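Tutorial, part two.
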Amino acid sequence: IYDGADMTKPDEIVAMVERAKSEFGSVDVLVNNAGIQNVAPVDEFPPAKWDAIIAINLSSAFHTTRTAVPMMKEQGWGRIINIASAHGLVASPYKSAYVAAKHGIIGFTKTVALELAEQNITANAICPGYVFTPLVEGQVADTAKSRGISEEEVINDVMLKAQATKKFVTIEQLADAALF
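Running the prediction step on this input gives:
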């Protein structure tokens, strides 16, 4: 089912998880994958964009998790999969909010994993490199503008530079990791 909950609004997030429970009986697997991006130097970073990125990329995972965990505890089983990013492990310039949120997701995941391990509930984070999604596609143009380079240079010299394959991660590869 689709639910149009606004990931910046905790009450809508809770209602979405509760709707899943009412439609399916429980939440067995939670995948936190909501994300947005903005590329700008820290001194030019719009505060409203910072707040939205932290809310959607980090705080929404807290709100879904805190709502789903009681259901998982009740049934004695659950899986929480947080889609972090390579930016949860290393930083990049011009992405202060995104990097902060993804580092936060890594710490949040570790904490939740420790809290729930003895109750047969796991929490893991997947940290892919660049996955070519609409978010990344828009980031190419923003990064080119911020750095004064071509979009091709952004793709080859910025995004794919540290990726061993020199290719974007596919959505299918990411899905396969989550299914595993």
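The radius of gyration is 17 Å. In part three we will examine how such features are distributed along the chain.
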